[in-house]
Every structure is written in structure tokens, then in C-alpha cells.
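Lab notebook page, bench 4
Experiment: in silico fold of construct C2
Operator: M.H.
Input chain length: 243 residues
Purpose: comparison with the prior construct
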Amino acid sequence: MQQTLTIIVPVYNEEDNLSRVEKELSAYLDICLAPAEVLFVNDGSIDKSQDAIVDICQRDNRFTYLSFKNNRGLSAALKAGFDHVQSDLVGYIDSDLQTSPSDFNLLLAEIKDYDLVTGVRGNRKDSFVKNMSSTIANVIRRAFTHDGMDDTGCPLKIIKTEYAKRIPMFKGLHRFLPAMILLQEGKIKQVPVQHFPRIAGEAKYHLWNRLFGPLADCFAYLWMKRKYINYQIADSSAELKRQ
């Protein structure tokens, strides 16, 4: 049976981008390698993003949404999406569309043999400060996690839902998704994807939350790694009742 996919799109004050998000994701759903739908998670936007999301969902039933009462951050938005989806696979793309939905097909081509496939952005179209801070942050994270990933912040990922739902999310953990799959003894891979400049809206990350914040999160990850509970059920009475 073909696996199904839900693409999570976190949104925070992106009203100027959402018409393009609808256009590009609608086009992608028509060529997706798996039956797919889109789940917007409105992270407490205070602009007109929610109105735009409702309009999109009314026009196309392949789009659905969750809306937070207040802003809770990217990790919370992803957590809500992971909790909500029922598909076999869950994807993630930012609403600024600095990555292309069409590149999900590159990840889908690999996901059969892996539990998480993430993009790695080549020839990034960001400012020098943003690129440099991301590079340093990735070096620091690799030193702590040993996940072998070059670009954990790439906002283009596909995860097998059974693994995504077991991730014990905390604020900032979206930067450690590959490492959290490794804690579950899963397999991960990175694939080169396209990257584009932001066309509309404002970036939500600056030097502090791109560099210094992740450094503090690394220590939280190390604590979690020491305490993480990982198990597999070998047998249960429920299996006997089904026979």
C-alpha cells in the first residue's frame, strides 16, 4: 500500500506569503509521489494570516489547519502537527518558501529506507550574518549530537509518523530532529535541495535565537539523551486476541 503524507506548514505573521504558499503547494500536491495533504499550524499570528488560511482551506479540501490561541514557537507548532496527523509520513516546510515544495519528491524517493530524510541547502540565498551564524550553530550541534547532519535547520524534512509522534518535544527541539530520530535507533539521511531568498514577510530568527539559543539547547539535548527511554514491544496479549 502506498504511504500517505501530511505536510505541516507552521505560520506566524506570514499573510504576505500565503497566496504563494497556496499556489506552490497546490501545484505540488498534483505531482507528489504520495497521496498528500497540507496542514497549516497558525502559531498565534496577529496579522491576517488566519483569515487567509481559512480562505485557502475553504477553496481546497486538501488544506486543513490548526490555530493556536497564542504564539508558542516553531517547536510547539511542529509538536501540534505531529500529534494531529494520521498519515504514514509527515513533512515540514516553512511558510516563507525559501525551500521548494517540489523538492519533497527528492526526500520521498529516499524515505523507504530511512526514518527521517532532511534537505541540506546548497548555495544559500541568505545574508552573510545569517549564513555564518547557521554554520557555526550547525558545527556546535554536530559536536554535541554526532548526528552527521550538515544543515539541521533546513525547513524541508520528511519523517515516518511513528517516529515523529515519539519525539518528546521541548522549545528549540526542532533543531535536533535528526538527533532525536537517532535516539530511537532510526536511520537518517540528508539530500541536497534548492534554496531561495525570502520574497515577503520578515525573518523570525536573529543572531541570538539562531546561535546562542541553540547552544543552550544543546545542553538540554544532552540531558535528554542520558534520560531517554527507548523500547520495542516483543510480544503482547493483544496480539493473541487478534489471532
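Observations: The longest strand covers residues 5-11. The chain has a mean pLDDT of 85.
Next step: discuss at group meeting.
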